[in-house]
Amino acid sequence: MKNRRSVLRAITAGFAVSLAPLPATLRADETGVMKEGSLEGQGDHEAAGTVAILESGGSNYVSFGVDFVFDGAPDPRVALGRDGIDHETLLGKLSSNSGTQNYEIPEDLDPNNYDEVWIWCEQNEMPLARAKMS
Q1: Structure confidence by residue, pLDDT tens digits, 22-77
Q2: Residue 123 CB partners (closer than 8 Å, separation 6+)
Q3: Rounded to whole angstroms, how far apart are CA atoms 54 and 121?
């Protein structure tokens, strides 16, 4: 455990806490930050980095910043929550354990109803990381 924390601290020490440029599917000049927060590991897991809920071109996204790092787990998924994960909001499988990535929020979910972003292990049904959004 201590070793993982040391590695994550060393990795994140060199990153600026800001969102990376958005991929071509999200136009940076038309993107607004609705909420943002910082990831914290849950249980024995380590995670760090900036997470934001963005609006771009009429759609909403969960966006992990360039400073995002996660120690890994089987079957990690991204979801929203309020006072805990809402399993009806699973947005997809985490595409990488580090770096910028975006997950579209379905139109039928209002991001204003949620104040947390979760990384959840679907296989073991346990929380891996959480960001309290404001």
Answers
A1: 443 555 455 799 999 999 999 999 999 999 999 998 999 999 999 999 999 999 99
A2: 74, 75
A3: 24
For 12-23, what is the HEC assignment? HHCCCCCCCCCC
pLDDT, residue 17, reads: 34
Strand order in the sheet with 50-56: 92-93, 76-81, 116-121, 126-132, 31-41, 50-56, 59-64, 101-105
**SS3 assignment, position 119:** strand
Q: What secondary structure, in 3-state letters, does 42-96 show? A: CCCCCEECEEEEEEECCEEEEEECCCCEECCCCCEEEEEECCCECHHHCCEECCC
Report residue 4: phi and psi, to 5°: -60, -40
Average pLDDT over residues 84-102: 97
Q: Which amino acid is at 51?
A: V
CB atoms within 10 A of CB 115: 17
